[in-house]
Amino acid sequence: MLSRLDSRTLAATAVIVAVVPAVIGVLVWNARRFPGRWALGNVLVACALLLYSVYATTAGWQRVIVANLVTLAAGMVFLQGIRQFRGLRILWWPECSLSAVTMALLAWFRYGADQINVRILVMSIALASIGFACGIVLLKQVPRERRVSYVFTGGVFFIAGALHLIRGVLVFGFAPVDDLFAASIGNTILFLGGSLGVVAWSLGFLVLTAGPVGAEVNGRAAKTILEALELEPVSGMVREGEVRRQLERILRSNPFRRSAQMERFLTLAVERTLAGRAEELKELTLGREVFHRGPNYDPRTDSIVRVEAQRLRRKLRTYYSTAGESDPVVIALPSGSYVPVFAYRQGDFREPSESLPSEAF
After folding, report:
1. What angle do CA 357, 358, 359 make, to 5 degrees?
2. 79 or 142, which is more confident?
3. Which is more confidently placed, 93 or 36?
4. Which of 141, 18, 30 is nearest to 74 (CA)?
5. Cβ-based burial of 175 (10 A; exposed 0-12, middle 13-18, buried ≥19)
């Protein structure tokens, strides 16, 4: 039954279906903190499907080169958008290398030795690799209280990757075709699955950017710190990706770059909080994991964690009064706690008053 569905009709339907999430993505990108690469990715998917449909009656370079290149570009920007959302450094060379090798193979198996089934396999492996990479980045260190949205979106990309791989193996080894739009199970999987995938991952993106990071529920603590620093808090919770990018900026600054111990302390505190494991940020845990105290470590006789926490607060205050004076996001460690809080701020940073206690930040 599936093999009897007309591939050109499915492709045209996929174009229509892809246009709606593309438009919504652009609108959301302008309205909230939604990575522009996600919006661009859906636009490129719609363009790729349109190119496949337009060139359905040809086997020229437009379909072999342009349409496949746009498809790979869509996968690349999705992966980069996910890395941006998770606050990770965007890497260009893996995606560009994969795309270059894929395009070279596609060109060879079109103009050197015309084998459409090999081209389908090559493209399927490339897209499957990108889909699996997207899923892995999303599902790594998932915040506990937002597990459903992360697992859903990451699972969609895993399924998309698996479907591409299945289609490639199926066409190459069991059901070869003479035309990209031949009525076959493989093409039905591609276009029908593509339509559902666009809708599913777009929904996942919207859900991911709709909710706050679980660690940011302590709004009153963040507000208190901002008020102590004479900063005006901005309504709305800080997104996880922005927290990670802010952490990276802090760690690159001079006060932290020269202190591996402070870097470990702040990184562990932020990462555990983002992962929904703030309850682990106790003096005993920090002493052992950050300061390498042994199993006999006793916080009652060794004040290393309390002393270094005071140093960390001072370094954060120094950072936000110098290099970070214009940063839009504040990462703060409240007095008496080892759980950081995150908040937006607006207006110019002003040095804390003389009467501000050293432990206020």
Report:
1. 90
2. 79
3. 93
4. 18
5. middle
Q: Which residue has the higher pLDDT, 135 or 193?
A: 135
Phi, psi of 239 (to 5 degrees): -75, 155
Q: Which of 136-145, 146-155, 274-283 has the highest mean pLDDT?
A: 146-155
Tokens found for residue 59: 């086997």
| Residue 48 burial (C-beta neighbours within 10 Å; 0-12, 13-18, 19+) | buried
Q: What are the backbone dihedrals phi and psi of residue 233, each rounded to the nearest 5 degrees, phi first? A: -70, 150
Measured CA to CA in angstroms, residue 295 lies from 261, 278, 284 at distances of 19, 21, 10
Asked whether residue 262 carries a pLDDT value surpassing 60, the answer given is yes
Domains and CATH numbers, the chain: 2-210 (1.20.1070), 214-360 (no CATH)
Q: What does the alpha-carbon distance between residue 14 and residue 198 come to, in Å, rounded to a whole number? A: 9
Average pLDDT score over residue span 201-219: 62
Q: How far apart are CA 82 and CA 34, in angstroms?
A: 10
Q: What CA–CA distance (Å, rounded) separates 181 from 13?
A: 14
Taking the C-alpha atoms of residue 61 and residue 246, their distance in angstroms, rounded to an integer, is 44
Q: What's residue 348's pLDDT?
A: 38
Give the Cα separation of 330 and 247 in Å (integer). 9
CA dist., res. 26 & res. 312, Å (int): 40
- Least trusted range by pLDDT, from 131-135, 139-143, 153-157: 139-143
Q: How far is it, in rounded angstroms, from Cα 161 to Cα 139?
A: 15
Both tokens of 156, joined, read: 């969609």
